[in-house]
Amino acid sequence: QVQLVESGGGSVQSGGSLRLSCEASGDTVSSNLMAWFRQAPGKEREGIATISRCGSTRYADSVNSRFTISRDNAKNTLFLQMNSLSLEDTAMYYCAARPTPTGSCFYTLNQNGYNYWGRGTQVTVSS
Questions:
Q1: In whole angstroms, how far apart are CA 7 and each of 11, 23, 24, 42?
Q2: CB neighbours of 44 closer than 8 A, spacing ≥ 6?
Q3: ∠ CA 125-111-27 to the nearest 5 degrees?
Q4: pLDDT in tens, 67-113
Q5: Are 14 and 126 a contacting pair, CB within 8 Å?
Q6: Are 9 and 118 in contact (CB under 8 A)?
Q7: By the 8 A CB rule, do 127 and 14 touch?
């Protein structure tokens, strides 16, 4: 069982930056496929970034080149650095985890592929 707690959300002006954190317990971020999802009001949950157990990363087109996913194994924490934020980035942001075999480079941005979820942290971008 993995427990995930997100933090770092808040209000920011368009063009600004935020760094989200997701602290894990019960298992290590390095033993899981980890991902960030977001859900805006009235929209479906969207997978935006993932980092596999082998360390490879993938991004949705909507955030590619603006967002960076990373993990700190010593702190057992997942991060999402978000730059050049726009109004369209306003959403609740969730981290998710899926146990995977050692060395696995498997990834998915489909929410059905994840077993464990945090409660989310709100990001609001204003003009």
A1: 13, 8, 12, 23
A2: none
A3: 95
A4: 999 999 999 999 999 999 999 999 999 999 999 999 999 999 999 99
A5: yes
A6: no
A7: yes
